[in-house]
């Protein structure tokens, strides 16, 4: 079965993020992303966590999905700020996407 590659998933999630971030994040977060993403920004595909089923209200076949994190890294190259997590289908014929936004309160 053909699946999307990690690079394709990262690119897709980042494109979605850029489109929606101004409407889904606080203004200060947009400033942080704009100023710091080039130096500390990261977009990383990983295995999804099981708690998506709780949020979606239905079982999720985790082998059919990937999770992509978008945020800023600390000095040890670990995420210290996450702005969004995307749940993306691996199958190229599937287009349903889920996202969790992490909006700071200003």
What is the element layout, followed by pairings?
Elements (H helix, E strand, L loop, with lengths): L5 H19 L2 H14 E6 L5 H5 L8 E9 L5 E11 L8 E4 L5
Antiparallel strand pairs: 1-2, 2-3, 3-4
3D structure, described in words:
This protein has a single domain (6-101), classed as Nuclear Transport Factor 2, Chain: A (Roll), CATH 3.10.450.140. β2 (65-73) and β3 (79-89) form a beta hairpin. The protein is 36% helix and 28% strand. It has 3 helices and 4 strands; from the N terminus they run ααβαβββ.
End-to-end gap: 46 Å
Counting DSSP H or I runs of 4 or more residues, the number of helices is: 3
The profile of the biggest β sheet is:
4 strands, antiparallel
Which strand order does the major sheet show?
Answer: 1-2-3-4
Count of beta strands:
4
Organism: Aeromonas simiae
Pfam families: DUF440
InterPro entries: dsDNA_mimic_put, Put_dsDNA_mimic_sf
Protein name: DUF440 family protein
Task: Provide tags for this entry.
106 residues, alpha+beta, Nuclear Transport Factor 2, Chain: A, four-stranded antiparallel beta sheet, 4 strands, 36% helix, Put_dsDNA_mimic_sf, DUF440 family protein, dsDNA_mimic_put
């Amino acid at each position: 079965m053909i699946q999307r590659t990690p690079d394709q998933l990262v690119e897709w999630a980042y494109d979605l993020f850029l489109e929606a971030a101004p409407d889904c994040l606080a203004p200060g977060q947009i400033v942080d992303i704009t100023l710091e993403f080039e130096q500390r920004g990261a977009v990383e595909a990983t295995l999804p966590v099981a708690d998506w089923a709780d949020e979606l209200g239905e079982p999720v076949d985790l082998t059919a999905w990937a999770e992509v994190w978008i945020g800023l890294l600390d000095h040890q190259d670990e995420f210290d700020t996450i702005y969004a997590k995307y749940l993306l289908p691996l199958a190229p014929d599937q287009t349903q996407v889920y996202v969790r936004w992490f909006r700071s309160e200003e």
